UniProtKB/TrEMBL annotation:
Organism field: Clostridium carboxidivorans P7
Segments forming domain Beta-ketoacyl-[acyl-carrier-protein] synthase III C-terminal: 237-326
One Pfam family of this chain: ACP_syn_III
Protein name (database record): Beta-ketoacyl-[acyl-carrier-protein] synthase III
Residue ranges that the Swiss-Prot or TrEMBL entry lists as coiled coil: none
Region ranges (ACP-binding): 254-258
Reactions this protein catalyses: 2-methylpropanoyl-CoA + malonyl-[ACP] + H(+) = 4-methyl-3-oxopentanoyl-[ACP] + CO2 + CoA; malonyl-[ACP] + acetyl-CoA + H(+) = 3-oxobutanoyl-[ACP] + CO2 + CoA; 3-methylbutanoyl-CoA + malonyl-[ACP] + H(+) = 5-methyl-3-oxohexanoyl-[ACP] + CO2 + CoA; (2S)-2-methylbutanoyl-CoA + malonyl-[ACP] + H(+) = (4S)-4-methyl-3-oxohexanoyl-[ACP] + CO2 + CoA
Job description of the protein: Catalyzes the condensation reaction of fatty acid synthesis by the addition to an acyl acceptor of two carbons from malonyl-ACP. Catalyzes the first condensation reaction which initiates fatty acid synthesis and may therefore play a role in governing the total rate of fatty acid production. Possesses both acetoacetyl-ACP synthase and acetyl transacylase activities. Its substrate specificity determines the biosynthesis of branched-chain and/or straight-chain of fatty acids.
Entry keyword Cytoplasm: yes
Molecular function GO labels: 3-oxoacyl-[acyl-carrier-protein] synthase activity; beta-ketoacyl-acyl-carrier-protein synthase III activity
Family: Belongs to the thiolase-like superfamily. FabH family.
CDD domains, sorted: KAS_III
Entry keywords, A to Z: Acyltransferase, Cytoplasm, Fatty acid biosynthesis, Fatty acid metabolism, Lipid biosynthesis, Lipid metabolism, Multifunctional enzyme, Transferase
Amino acid sequence: MNKVQIMGTGSYVPPRIVTNDDLSCIVDTSDEWISSRTGIKERRISEGEDTSDMASKAALKALEQSKVKPEEIDLIIVATSTPDNFIPSTACLVQKNILAVNATCFDISAACSGFVYGINIATQFIRTGSVKKVLVIGAETLSKVLNWEDRSTCVLFGDGAAAAVLSESDRESILAICNGSDGSKGQYLVSKAVPVVNPYTDKKDIDVNVNSYVEMNGREIFKFAVKTILQSTEELLEKINCSMDEIKYIVLHQANYRIIEFAAKKLGVSEDKFYVNLDKFGNTSAATIGIALDEMNQKNLLKTGDKILLIGFGGGLTYGGIAIEW
Ligand code: COA
């Protein structure tokens, strides 16, 4: 089996900062409510850039950092729940934008677990020798599927993209992987696509004006998140035969500070071990873990040999974790 190394990372968020106070001008909310329930202070909101635009910018930064040319990329995987189109895939749009002419491209839909699922898929492709270099991207324009009149959801999310270049190597970055899904809980986090309406359906029963607004049962997601974070952490530590003391950082999907607080308490781990940047970006779904990883990389927080855990959870419902040696 080939070894897999993370060669570099990149991220991009749109320049427009929307604070909690800004949101209180749109919906009946307050900085106090949002900060105390979620830890979020502000988020970036697209002023027109779509998912492929942000994904391409993050991808170019990751390539530059990795010193890999676009034409060396064999595979582009974009994790997104907010693609530009049904067809073509966002990954194909990225390919066109960054001139990765030799890549095979596809999108995956795993909501907030998307970046972790993407790294998992890329790893399997490289391990088997079928490709050498993969660009994994998590990118979302959640602002286009938010109901800006629903205070219970519009305050939680933001837009952004992150990328990582994975390559066949003589060094191993990916120590262990775990993931899973529970489709029976899918109704707790929903953004609908178009209904089936064609000349052969009974249109009377179908609401053709269905929207794609995010609808969420926050409490159920909270429970699922805490359960799967604990499960994934234990599974990863067991697989790599390490104690928590040997882990430098845990990078959780950045959804809500209270989830991180709760998980830290349950695991008996100091909150300092968890990297947190959700105060600045909110929940960017498939992009959060990649944005955090890139920020840590840029800040030089990661040294060669450091062990870190990446753990995602979200719509589907899905979850997944990766143990990495930097
Ligand atoms: N501002 C002010 N009040 C708000 C509000 C807002 N933005 N959003 C909801 N409220 C109100 C509700 O209307 C409700 O009022 P009521 O008691 O008068 O009916 C009250 O606050 C409590 O609402 P509730 O939804 O029960 O709050 P909560 O304590 O469960 O917190 C979340 C809501 C979303 C912060 C919390 O459930 C959570 O963090 N869940 C996890 C969600 C998540 O991370 N999703 C990402 C998926 S990957």
